[in-house]
Amino acid sequence: MPGCGAGAVPANLWEAIDAYGAGLAAASAAELTGTGGAGYYLRQVALESVIARAMAARAAASIHYGLLAGAAPGQLADAMGVTGAEVARAWRGWADGQRCLRERCPGLGMSEGEYRRAAAVIGDSAGLAPDRVICPDAAVQAGERE
User: Fold this and answer.
1) Nearest-angstrom CA–CA distance, 146 and 144
2) Measured between alpha carbons, how far is 99 from 115 in angstroms, rounded to an integer?
3) pTM for this entry
4) What average pLDDT does the segment 108-128 reach?
5) For a Cys staple, 125 with which of 17, 88, 100, 109, CB 3.0–4.6 Å?
C-alpha cells in the first residue's frame, strides 16, 4: 500500500496472514493496548484490509460451491450470520465477476451452466437476470456506454 506509511504490504493472502501474525507477536504492550505508534497501526490495518478483501472473495466463492453442493440459501445465511438477501448479493457480485472473467478470458471464470445451476438454487433473492452478464467494462469496451 504505497504512500500509507505501512511499508511493503504483501498482496498474497497467506503472506499477509503470516505478516499480520508476526506483527502481533512482535508488538509491544503499548501497541497491543492502543497507545503505540502510528506506523504499527498503519501496517496492521493495511494487512487486515488485504486479508478482509481476500476472505470476502473466498466467502462468496464458498457460497457458490455451497449452493452447488446442496446447501440452501437460508443455511448459508445462518452460517454467515447475515440475511438471505446479503447472501444473494455476495453471490451475485462474485458470480457476475466470474461471468465477466469468462467473457474476457475464455476457459477461466464460470460457465453459463454453472451460473444457472447456482442461480436456480438461490432464486429470486439475487434479483437475477440470467441472460445478462453484468460486466460494465465490457459494455464500455463494446461502445455501449461511457
Assistant:
1) 7
2) 8
3) 0.69
4) 83
5) 88
